[in-house]
Amino acid sequence: VDALLDKLSSDDDFRETFQKNPRKALAAVGHKPSADSNVAQGAWTCLSVSRLADKETIRASRDKLREQLLSA
Q1: CA 53 centroid distance within chain
Q2: pLDDT number for residue 29
Q3: Which site in 14, 15, 28, 72 is 20 to 30 Å from 49, CA atoms measured?
Q4: What pLDDT tens digit does each residue of the chain (72 aa) get?
Q5: Which backbone phi and psi does 34 adopt, to 5 degrees?
Q6: Alpha carbon of 52 to those of 36, 41, 42: distances in Å?
Q7: How many CB atoms lie under 10 A from the CB of residue 18?
Q8: Closest Cα to residue 6, out of 54, 49, 62?
C-alpha cells in the first residue's frame, strides 16, 4: 500500500501505467495477483481507472487512503 501511494503521489510514468493497466502497475509495486486474476469477475471487476486524483490530493489524503486500502 505504501509503495502504491508513493508512486501515485509522485511518479507520472507510474500514474499513466496505473490508468492504462492497473494490474501491471500493481505488479510493479509488488502486488501478487489473486487466483482469479485472469477472469472478469471477483475483485478484479472493480479494477478500472477512469479518473485519477492529482498527485497533491493523493499526498494530502495519504493517511485516509492508506487506512481505507488496508481495512477488511
Answers
A1: 12
A2: 92
A3: 72
A4: 999 999 999 999 999 999 998 888 988 998 876 665 555 555 555 677 888 999 999 999 999 999 998 986
A5: -75, 170
A6: 25, 23, 22
A7: 21
A8: 62
C-alpha cell at 37: 486474476
Please check whether residue 8 is in contact with residue 52, taking contact to mean a CB–CB distance below 8 angstroms. Answer: yes
- Grid coordinates representing 21 are 493497466
Per residue in 54-68, is it b (16+ CB within 10 Å) or e — as a string? eeeebeeebeebeee
Predicted TM-score of the model (pTM): 0.78
What does the pLDDT read at residue 53? 95
Residue 27 one-letter amino acid? A
Rounded distance, CA 63 to CA 49, Å?
21
Within 10 A of 51 (CB to CB), how many other CB atoms are there? 5
Residue 12 exposed, middle or buried by CB count within 10 Å (0-12, 13-18, 19+): exposed
